[in-house]
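Anyone up for a design puzzle?
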């Protein structure tokens, strides 16, 4: 199997886990959101336009808005929903990376041996990638940030920004992987009988094909679980949008700021 074919196989293993995650999620965030244990801030071009302290104290453009009991209840429902859903975005993203990582690791381990130098090298690079996915959301302890975005393109987080980096990680490892496999073939072959080497090459190709079929089943099953989580996330965001609509009706000064938009 040529290196480019092997590279394509690894990349397909990784991205097969993402393409069905949230294609029907017609939810937009029109502003950025920052969460810490004490505050929720809604950000527009770096400026805090809405802040919720605790779960019921509301500030709009720096001014506190006095709320009656019914309005406080709406703000509490909204802030609780935001605190649940923003971390869920991070969870879905990291789990997606894990599915791809496990698939690629399984292939490399199958070719070069578990805990081989090649596998550990790729593991280290993917761990760094997962860390960068986390920092994309500025996650630190219980602090989260997410920028304005359209969730019907949720999987573009990976196929856009990180796709080239993932391909480079795998491509850089291909030479080491093939060298390890080649050495194993040579060490275990009978140099006086070229047919043995040809047979081992054929067996190697068959192993790749077999792993491809097994991984397709495994990734499909994992991706379906992740797809359900993404669908649940979208549903809960729609429900959160309904609460926001009630807030707009009850608190007129919020009408200018629509965080969640759904179709």
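Challenge accepted. My sequence:
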């Amino acid at each position: 199997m040529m290196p480019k074919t092997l590279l394509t196989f690894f990349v397909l293993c990784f991205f097969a886990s993402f393409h069905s995650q949230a294609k029907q999620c017609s939810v937009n965030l029109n502003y950025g959101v920052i969460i810490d244990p004490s505050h929720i801030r809604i950000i527009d071009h770096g400026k805090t336009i809405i802040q919720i302290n605790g779960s019921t104290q509301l500030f709009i453009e720096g001014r506190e808005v006095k709320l009656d009991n019914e309005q406080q209840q709406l703000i509490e429902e909204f802030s609780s929903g935001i605190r649940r859903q923003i971390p869920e975005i991070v969870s879905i993203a990291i789990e997606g990376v894990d599915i791809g990582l496990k698939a690629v690791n399984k292939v490399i381990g199958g070719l070069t041996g578990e805990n081989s130098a090649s596998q550990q090298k790729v593991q280290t690079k993917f761990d760094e990638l997962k860390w960068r996915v986390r920092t994309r959301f500025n996650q630190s302890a219980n602090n989260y940030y997410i920028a304005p975005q359209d969730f019907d393109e949720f999987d573009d987080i990976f196929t856009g920004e990180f796709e080239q980096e993932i391909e480079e990680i795998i491509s850089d490892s291909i030479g080491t992987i093939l060298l390890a496999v080649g050495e194993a073939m040579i060490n275990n072959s009978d140099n006086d009988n070229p047919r043995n080497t040809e047979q081992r090459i054929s067996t190697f190709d068959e192993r790749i094909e077999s792993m491809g079929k097994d991984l397709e089943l495994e990734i499909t099953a994992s991706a379906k679980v992740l797809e359900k989580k993404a669908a649940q996330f979208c549903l809960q965001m729609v429900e959160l949008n309904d609460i926001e609509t009630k807030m707009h009706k009850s608190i007129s000064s919020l009408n200018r700021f629509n965080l969640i938009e759904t179709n």
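A detail worth pointing out: The radius of gyration is 24 Å.
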